[in-house]
Amino acid sequence: MPDAACVLLASDHVEGSVHVLTVPDGTVTARLTGRHLSEHAGFLALPGGRVACVDDRRGELLVLDPFDDALVERAVPVAVPAEHLACDPSGRLLAVTTGLGRNTEPWSDLLTVVDLATGEAARVRTRVGEPGVTVLGGDDPLVVLRHREPGALAVHRFADLLAAAPGCPPVTPHAVLPLPDDGHGDAQAPASREVFAATGEGVHRARRDGDGLVAGTVIPWGSSARGWYLRLDTRRRALWSTLRGGAPDPLRWPEWTNEAWLHDLVTGRTRRTGLGPGLVFRLALARDHTAFTRVHPDGDELVLLGTDDTVRRVPLPAMDGAPRRGGTPWEGVQRRAVAASPDSDWVAVTRGGHGEVHLVHAGTGEEAARLRPGTPLHHGGHLALRTREDGADGDPVGR
């Protein structure tokens, strides 16, 4: 079956540009300049092939339609630096939390909520930190903030936040559910009205009950390692993460162990697959595969896990300025971004600093094209791959 019309959004958050390319031929159909998108908040899939993202320099939430020549559908002022971005299952109600930005300690307590249907927006003060966020839908939508130190899931009524007075007033949670202090990673399953938070001891789950949350059974990692990232699989009711193990010292990152972690929310079964040593973080969901990039001084690769349990490893050309032994994998180095669409077999992987995107067919593992958006893609940039009706918006958390 041929792929539906597929487009790739490529953001260079350092240079300040966004390019839209057709897949697989790589034609640039639209571009934005002077736009420094938050790589951490990422792209949020919205219905109709659209995406939301945050311009950290201008302080704007952008709604982009990559299938429309105008590209920018809406721009709404929000508090920055953006840390996390999420919407309710309808894609209408959005929330943006703030984080460190280029600071060493958390300093901002601002939260912005936006109603895309009316254009209304409000900013409130919550708690200093780097909170994760989910937005539960229904007749009375809820904003759930995942805080650390002390850990908690803080529940706010969306309507109350949107009706807040000017001047960024402080708000008190409607309800609070305790969490461990080391939470990092958030997901929502709209069908069951559940939220999930990754912690050292496992994935904490909570279900909406009226205007609050009821804690569920913790899902164990089943490993001495832990996940720092959660993602809902929109192709089935499942959660994905990458488990990182080994010494926490970032200078020893080439020794870190990595496992793909899949938990089926229907059967309760968990499967782990070894990915190899080095740096693995975000993942992408294609039609029949889940894609991971692994960075290591001995060679980088794209790892494709098939729904039939097959594992295919695709070598990737080295990057100038890649993380090296004796240094950290985070600061002043090039990285890779990965993107896919659940309605496509294409997987896109950046070669940070080189301005190249490897386009790989997940079914064969072959590189079909090497796209050049026209920007260096510093630090790996950030990508989103969409078709008009791929169902990616079933995951209402920015990636």
TrEMBL record:
It comes from the Bacteria. Residues 372-399 are annotated as: Disordered. InterPro entries: Haem_d1_sf. Residues 386-399 have a biased composition (Basic and acidic residues). This is Uncharacterized protein. It comes from Streptomyces capillispiralis.
